[in-house]
Amino acid sequence: MREVIYSEARWRLLRDLRARAIELMEHLEAEGFTCLVYGSLARGDVSRTSDLDILIPYTVSPQLLEYALLKKTPIVRRVIAQATPYYAVKAYLYVSEKDTVSFPLTPLRSEEMDFYKLAASLTLEELRRDLRRPGINKMLQLIKPTPYGHIELPVLKNLEESARLIGVSPETIMGRARVLLRRREKGRTGLFRSMELDENISFEEALRMLEARNPSLRRRLA
Q: Residues 185-197: pLDDT tens digits?
């Protein structure tokens, strides 16, 4: 176990990042898109390299979402990605070099939604209330928020406690651990497929291209 005490600079960084998230989420929800923020911003263990990860957890019209976002911020990149041949295909709209608004192009299964529970996620209202949730980071550490910072525990050595705190099964955590370990072996993302779209290709066209190459995706869409 390791206890981390936050400096005033780190608390200030967390407040600044959360203020940015609230501003963007308020805009999205005013436009009709319910969303979550997930990852270090929900847990609280932010650093200078932390990004803004906002999820719309259901399928939407990409064109309507892009139109709504452009009222607030430029979109600098558009990416389509699939973690494994069997996972949902997701779209990522980059509103800066690292901050994203993502949404599934195929409906998320319950076990796929569990990823956001594992990483920790918050609704806009929870973010306004300044809540922090326990979750697992990319180094497979359980982050337990405290009033002074957080406590870190190795997930694989504290499986039962991690599952209890997060509210998922130990099997779900082990599945996530396998994905993260595979990513370490294969590089930064370890994604099955990731493709940046140019301005002439829509997300729907890109999804059809993936479907043509991927029998598992064709079966899922059918």
A: 655 445 567 889 9
